[in-house]
Design goal:
single chain; 106 residues; alpha+beta; five-stranded antiparallel β-sheet; 2 helices; 5 strands
């Protein structure tokens, strides 16, 4: 397994452990993270170089099923979480900028 894959798996595990109470059939609470407007997110993705850290489909969150995709600035800076799903994939919730501590890393 490559170092990048190990890092992605570690980040994903840390994030899921930190916010586990938000991911379940009985949870309808939003993550306690700063939200980004969808239009601002679109502009940011056009201007910033972001690398995908991991993608997790089938994530039960806020009473719906989402695909969670975590990105990081190419320079190793802030993280951004894009949660897309819900009814016909029409819901999109974007969070960021997030620190390493926000995603559950030491």
């Amino acid at each position: 397994m490559s170092a990048a894959a190990v890092d992605a798996a570690a980040v994903q595990a840390a994030f899921n452990q930190r916010y586990q109470t938000f991911f379940g059939a009985d949870s309808n609470s939003l993550l306690p993270l700063p939200a980004i407007d969808k239009q601002d997110w679109k502009r940011m993705r056009e201007k910033k170089a972001l690398r995908q850290v991991y993608q997790e489909p089938g994530k039960y969150y806020n009473s719906k099923v989402y695909v969670f995709t975590l990105y990081q600035d190419e320079d190793g800076g802030a993280y951004y979480l894009d949660a897309t799903g819900g009814f016909w994939g029409m819901d999109e919730l974007v969070y960021g900028p997030l620190s390493a501590q926000d995603v559950g890393l030491p």
